[in-house]
């Protein structure tokens, strides 16, 4: 099996993402009619007459399209980060929240909502708190891991300890302000319902940088998979390479959780599906996880919006329904191995 990304799988990933985006734009609580939506898109491309009213066009371009694009960006960030974490730690059960990003983001948002309600209601305050908290949680894990050994296994254990500590702090703050529980849990369950172009512009630069770095590190991840001694004999500095990948993956994860909350299982499920379908080298898995991660989350969001329309399910519930059984299968396979 080839170790390089061929045009066929790449085109399949691009096609899956484009089809998912198209489905997200065509479907929604407001019945705009798929032919009229396509007519509106064609009119925008050619300068022709739009079949939609001004209100319907606003629903399409100010709500559906930015939400679909944001879902693709968040899914891509989680998918590519999950692939990177699995490669760095040589653990098929690793996910983007392994190093404390989830606990840090949750604590940051809870702190703003419970202790600084006026500041928390300001535009972008929750996103900034989640981003800072996620990076803070990863930084705390890194510092703890370095002090105890700075190897992959030590970082994982440090991540478990830091995550538990941050979750305890979040629970303590929630108990102090019980009236804020609903608002906190809505964020924890993940959502794209408040998506707008501002959120897209917030996450896009970080994803472009981190995604490009991670895709360029596919060969490094393959070498790290052979073991630190073997990678060093081939001219790779394992600690430095691991740090570059973890920083890039943590930035992508922090950007994703800052605008969408904690959406689980995307970074776990998507890299495995890509590995099963297209091969086991990270030069293939990382870029395809980015594309298929975006497609996966966009389709999950379509289901969240339409399953009980006009009500909307939390996006994290949909991904958990998909990911939890897959996670159980992985555990069974790991035990047999």
From TrEMBL:
Compartments where found: Cell membrane
Keyword Transport in annotation: yes
A Pfam family of this chain: FecCD
Gene Ontology cellular-component terms listed: plasma membrane
Domain of life: Bacteria
CDD domains linked to this entry: TM_ABC_iron-siderophores_like
Membrane topology qualifier: Multi-pass membrane protein
Keyword Membrane tagged: yes
GO molecular function: transmembrane transporter activity
Transmembrane segments: 68-85, 97-119, 125-145, 152-173, 200-222, 243-270, 282-304, 311-331
Database matches in InterPro entries: ABC_BtuC-like, ABC_transptr_permease_BtuC
GO process terms (BP): siderophore-iron import into cell
SUPFAM superfamilies, sorted: ABC transporter involved in vitamin B12 uptake, BtuC (SSF81345)
Alphabetized UniProt keyword annotations: Cell membrane, Membrane, Transmembrane, Transmembrane helix, Transport
Protein family per UniProt: Belongs to the binding-protein-dependent transport system permease family. FecCD subfamily.
Entry protein name: Iron complex transport system permease protein
């Amino acid at each position: 099996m080839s170790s390089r990304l061929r045009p066929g799988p790449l085109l399949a990933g691009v096609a899956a993402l484009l089809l998912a985006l198209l489905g997200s734009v065509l479907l929604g609580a407001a019945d705009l009619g798929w032919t009229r939506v396509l007519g509106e898109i064609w009119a925008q491309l050619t300068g022709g007459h739009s079949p939609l009213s001004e209100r319907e066009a606003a629903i399409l371009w100010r709500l559906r399209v930015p939400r679909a694009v944001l879902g693709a960006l968040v899914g891509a960030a989680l998918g590519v980060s999950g692939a990177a974490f699995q490669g760095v730690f040589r653990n098929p059960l690793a996910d983007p929240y392994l190093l404390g990003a989830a606990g840090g983001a949750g604590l940051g948002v809870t702190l703003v909502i419970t202790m600084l309600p006026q500041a928390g209601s300001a535009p972008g305050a929750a996103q900034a708190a989640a981003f800072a908290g996620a990076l803070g949680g990863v930084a705390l894990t890194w510092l703890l891991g370095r002090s105890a050994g700075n190897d992959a296994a030590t970082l994982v254990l440090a991540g478990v300890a830091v995550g538990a500590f941050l979750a305890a702090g979040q629970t303590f703050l929630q108990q102090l302000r019980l009236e804020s529980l609903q608002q906190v849990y809505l964020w924890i369950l993940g959502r794209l319902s408040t998506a707008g172009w501002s959120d897209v512009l917030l996450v896009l630069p970080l994803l472009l940088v981190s995604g490009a770095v991670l895709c360029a590190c596919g060969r490094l991840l393959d070498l790290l998979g052979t073991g630190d001694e073997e990678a060093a004999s081939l001219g790779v500095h394992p600690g430095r390479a691991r740090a570059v990948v973890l920083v890039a993956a943590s930035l992508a994860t922090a950007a994703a959780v800052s605008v969408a909350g904690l959406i689980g299982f995307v970074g776990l499920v998507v890299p495995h599906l890509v590995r099963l379908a297209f091969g086991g080298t990270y030069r293939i898995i990382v870029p395809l996880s980015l594309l298929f991660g975006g497609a996966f989350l966009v389709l999950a969001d379509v289901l969240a919006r339409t399953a009980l329309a006009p009500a909307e399910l939390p996006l994290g519930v949909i991904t958990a329904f998909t990911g939890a059984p897959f996670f159980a299968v992985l555990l069974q396979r790991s035990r047999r191995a």
